[in-house]
Automatic annotation (TrEMBL):
Residues 1-15 have a biased composition (Basic residues). The active site is at residue 335. It comes from the Eukaryota. Residues 63-450 form the SAM-dependent MTase RsmB/NOP-type domain. Residues 1-32, 451-530, 742-792 are annotated as: Disordered. It holds the Pfam family Methyltr_RsmB-F. Keywords: Methyltransferase, Nucleus, RNA-binding, S-adenosyl-L-methionine, Transferase, tRNA processing, tRNA-binding. GO terms for biological process: tRNA methylation. This is RsmB/NOP family class I SAM-dependent RNA methyltransferase. Belongs to the class I-like SAM-binding methyltransferase superfamily. RsmB/NOP family. S-adenosyl-L-methionine binds at residues 181-187, 215, 242, 282. It comes from Phanerochaete sordida. Residues 475-484 have a biased composition (Basic and acidic residues).
Length: 792
């Protein structure tokens, strides 16, 4: 449910909101609601949208009819890895042709087809009933493939239209990006992929940019963390704020001045507000564009849903505009077709904060069919779509004087004058209707903050230009509800925001005197909890370890990390800053932010990516490891560039097969030369590069680098069960893992029990037999997350 922080109500004034992304990011590959087509009817909906003239008369029936059809399944192959292309070729060249001739219950079933406008053909559409996926052997196999690859993050199930906003943002690896309403995170994942566009098959890049993924719902921020685990990034921060009052983030000015790859030198202590290059406002909305997926909306739909959300949507967009860099871009999107939630919000925001313009993106995605934004509409002020007023003034006058202050609608619900609508170019907004390309309904607008005409440096007296706080106060729209502190800060921020680049270090700034990050007795720099801290925010602090910290030094020596390893960017999360279980890695800008801001005020839930974990359990003790660390499989791509190449073991596909088939293969199970190479290794974490090649019908299309744990007697592949199965399916064409064999055995046992004369007579379920050399360190501790660099 959409909740403004502490408001305890949905979004705005009594509206119902859609919180989940269209298509969401759940991996169930299932739709949730079943409703008879005859019940997909709502007179209010039809009357309202006919009154809005959103479509021509000739299109109306096709629109309405398509709103009642089930939504096709759509997915995309995740884009930042080179693996994506390989996997995509596999769908195109193997799966799609195999599915082309399938006939189910006498009818031909359409194979998956590529979405015409998605770059590089990486997105697909599948119009197949659930029954077919379950019962047709060919589609069942394809479905299993999709489920496994989704599980490990190589495929993302996402509604087609939901893929649009990140594409329009055009994020690059150096961009500072903000996702204001991010959960559950399908678009966050796309943004991360764009930041990581330079990743290779085996190693993750270290983007200099930043992605702040925010959501006001604390529980849903954990969906974001789950989502981000598919593409671990040192550039990610997850926050839990009401986006309409998102606090200014402070950053030392020198961070702004030093390019990627150079060491950050502290030349002064001035701090400025971090301004973003790209902001996504995928705001909470009524979701009436998702009726094909959520048919329950038919029953309850009312114009008051959109009316109630308009205020919050506008406040979120306006806050984004204040946090945007000159020349930066905002994408505002909803999965509603209601102009009150769309053009009305955009027009009001553009009118209240000058210096922005709508961008014509009509040629950006060839193949995408859409309709231009509309310039006029008719708000209705009751749920039955019977009462309307030509102007806000007329509406107010209809209310008794003592009720006017509590009027449900504000002036910005009404359209601007025709001249204003022309000047704002509302036609540059994009409306997507279900009947155009068999999708959900959607709205996207791209706003840009204009560059100043000349780079002339402004004096402090005229630093506040068009987008000043004073202008905001004269706006007809409600001023964002900022706390007193935020308000003052926003005023300062505005001044800074309008200062031409390079950011002058002389600008007087109240925050310049902000204290240095707290340093504890051990010299560890801690994420600060200072004055203004949010005492209700219960996340653990963020503590950066000093590069000479014994824990870091142990990691460096055990994992054989090279001199350029960014030891200063490693942090731990716990209340005392002492006990270490996991170590996270961030990039420079994330570190700067954590050290310069109170993490509770930012409501920072997590940042960076977990790369190393302390190996605990019986095996570590048995191996007399005092403090043993292992690289997590999801952290490996980030760590790989720093691992000494000589310490990486080489292996072939036969070795991988042994590790797949057995949880804890003993050394004698391996062939030479791998056996002799790993035997002398100390007990602990090792990195193995499996070379591309073939083994019978199995094929590894490119090198694969994975972490293993070497104990006294065995070698364990340290990837999570499901990731292992996905890898096995891809490389060996079947799931050869121990887990799959055990599951098959369990199914057979279950079947035998159900066929036995009585439940009592059934034999007890067989214990899972531990294989020779089994320790306790393997699967139980194995991390979740995709095996990066996989793909064959
Ligand atoms: C449409 S969904 C976002 C979907 C998401 N962008 C995606 O692609 O997965 C809207 C989200 O806004 C969140 N939300 C509602 N009110 C908010 C507010 N005031 N500030 C920030 N997030 C808010 C909801 O919790 C919900 O997760």
């Amino acid at each position: 449910m959409a909740r403004g922080k502490g408001k305890g109500r949905r979004g705005g004034k009594g509206g119902k909101s859609r919180d989940a992304a269209p298509g969401g990011t759940d991996d169930s590959w299932r739709t949730t609601e079943v409703i008879e087509k005859a019940d997909m009817h709502n007179e209010r909906f039809e009357a309202y949208y006919k009154a809005q003239n959103v479509l021509s008369e000739g299109e109306w029936d096709a629109f309405l009819e398509s709103m009642k059809e089930p939504l096709p399944t759509t997915f995309r192959v995740t884009g930042s890895r080179q693996v994506a292309q390989l996997l995509n070729d596999m769908i195109k060249d193997t799966h799609a042709p195999q599915l082309a001739g399938v006939v189910f219950e006498g009818e031909a079933v359409a194979p998956p087809k590529q979405i015409p406008w998605y770059p590089d053909g990486l997105a697909w559409q599948l119009n197949v009933a659930k029954k077919v996926l379950r019962k047709s052997p060919e589609f069942k196999k394809f479905h299993n493939f999709l489920v496994f690859e989704t599980e490990v993050g190589n495929i993302s199930r996402q509604e087609a239209v939901s893929m649009l906003p990140p594409l329009f943002l055009e994020v690059e690896p150096h961009h500072r990006v903000m996702d204001m309403c991010a959960a559950p995170g399908s678009k966050t994942a796309q943004l991360l992929e764009a930041l990581h566009a330079h990743d290779t098959v085996t190693a993750s890049s270290f983007p200099s940019g930043l992605l702040v993924a925010n959501d006001s719902d604390h529980k849903r921020t954990h969906m974001l963390i789950h989502q981000a685990a598919r593409l671990p990034s040192p550039s990610l921060m997850v926050t839990n704020h009401d986006a309409s009052i998102f606090p200014a983030i402070k950053i030392p000015s020198e961070q702004l001045a030093f390019p990627e790859g150079t060491k950050t030198r502290v030349v002064n202590k001035r701090q400025h507000q971090l301004l973003f290059d790209r902001i996504l406002c995928d705001v909470p909305c009524s979701g009436d564009g998702t009726m094909r997926k959520n048919p329950g909306i038919w029953k309850h739909w009312s114009p008051m849903d959109g009316n109630g959300l308009h205020g919050l949507q506008l406040r979120i967009l306006e806050r984004a505009m204040r946090m945007l860099q000159k020349g930066g871009r905002i994408v505002y999107s909803t999965c509603s077709i209601n102009p009150v939630e769309n053009e009305a919000v955009v027009a009001a925001a553009l009118k209240s904060i000058p210096g922005f313009e709508l961008v014509d993106m009509s040629n950006h995605l060839p193949g995408l069919i859409f309709r231009p934004g509309i310039k006029t509409w008719t708000p209705f002020v009751d749920r039955f779509v019977t009462t309307k007023f030509p102007t806000y003034q007329a509406y107010l006058e209809s209310l008794p004087e003592n009720k006017r202050a509590d009027a449900k609608l504000v002036e910005s619900h009404w359209p601007p004058t025709p001249a204003e609508a022309d000047a704002l170019h509302l036609e540059y907004c994009m409306r997507i209707y279900p009947h155009l390309q068999d999708t959900g309904g959607f709205f996207v607008a791209v706003l840009q903050k204009k560059q100043p005409p000349a780079p002339a440096r402004q004096g402090p007296e005229n630093k506040r230009n068009a987008d000043t706080v004073e202008d905001l106060e004269t706006s007809d729209t409600k001023k964002p509800k900022l706390s007193a502190e935020d308000d003052a800060e926003a005023a300062d921020d505005e001044a800074l925001a309008t200062t031409p680049e390079p950011v002058p270090e002389a600008a007087p700034d109240a925050e310049a005197a902000a204290p240095e990050p707290a340093t504890d007795a051990k010299g560890k720099g801690k994420g600060r909890a200072t004055q203004g801290a949010d005492i209700h925010f219960k996340e653990n602090p963020f503590t950066f370890l000093k590069p000479d910290d014994p824990v870091i030094q142990t990691c460096i020596s055990q994992l054989q990390l090279q001199a350029d390893f960014p030891a200063a960017n490693m942090l731990i999360r716990n209340p005392t800053g002492d006990t270490v279980r996991s170590i996270y890695m961030t990039n420079d800008i994330v570190k700067q932010i954590v050290e310069s801001n109170d993490y509770t005020r930012m409501r920072l839930v997590t940042c960076g990516t977990k790369v190393v974990a302390k190996q605990e359990g019986a095996a570590a003790k048995r191996d007399s490891a005092e403090m043993q660390f292992r690289i997590l499989s999801e952290g490996l791509p980030a760590m790989l560039p720093y691992v000494a190449p000589a310490s990486i073991l080489s292996a072939d596909l036969a070795t991988l097969k042994v590790m797949m088939e057995t949880y804890y293969p003993v050394l004698s199970q391996f062939q030479e030369p791998f056996r002799s190479a790993i035997a002398p290794k100390a007990q602990g974490c090792c990195i193995v590069r499996f070379a591309q090649g073939r083994l019978g019908t199995a094929a590894l299309a490119h090198d694969l680098v994975l972490p293993v744990w070497k104990s006294n007697v065995s070698v364990t592949l340290m990837i999570e069960k499901k990731a292992k199965s996905a890898l096995s399916l891809r490389v060996f064409g079947e799931d050869i893992t121990t887990a799959a064999r055990e599951a098959a055995q369990q199914r057979r046992d279950q079947q035998a029990r159900s066929q036995a004369p009585s439940a009592e007579a059934a034999p007890p379920e067989a214990d899972v037999v531990r294989e020779e050399g089994a320790g306790s360190e393997g699967q139980a501790d194995a991390p979740t997350g995709p095996p990066m660099g996989t793909g064959a």
